[in-house]
Design goal:
Yip1_dom, 205 residues, Yip1 domain-containing protein, 9 helices, mainly alpha, membrane, transmembrane, 0% strand
Length: 205
Amino acid sequence: MNSLNPFRTIWIHTRETVHELIEHNRPVMMYLLILLFGLNISLERASITNLADSTSLLAIPIIVLLLTPIMGFAVWFFGGLLVYWTGSWLGGIGTFKEMRIAVAWSTIPFALKTIIWVLQVILFGREMFAEITPRIDSSPLLTILLGLITLIDLIITAWFYVILSKSIGEAHNISSIKGFLSIVLGIALVLGCLLFLILVFSLIR
């Protein structure tokens, strides 16, 4: 276990890596990964909601840093709980603790995405968090760079779900396909609950 480098091995040898991490977890590093995960979620949220259009540039990093631990630990905990449930419906036998470990270490790709975010902020600045992007739109080089970075980000995100599916499969002792299905079921469950609440509130009104 001491020779295992999860930052390298989890990309290809996911199940073997997660098996070792479940047996010999590294809590400090795991919590740092969760914080990086939360940082990425908070940055993406700030970008999608065009936060720069409604607040000052100085306030953006403050808001992002405040949201980082909340988003990271909330999504990790409840996401782990969801796939613990849905995976058990598919025959999984993993414990909630094992699932939390597996999900946490599956976020390693987000450590790489953090580097991409730093690069984007350096290159595009405020326009990463704004609806109108005149500097990017007027520069073919910046437009190409943004497209290339977005493509790389999509590839990393897709591989994250591959790693997550395999990690859930290992923790639950089921196939990676069932691990992926547990993610789909979890998302469907959340969407179903949201739609139900929207329907209830619309009927009440």
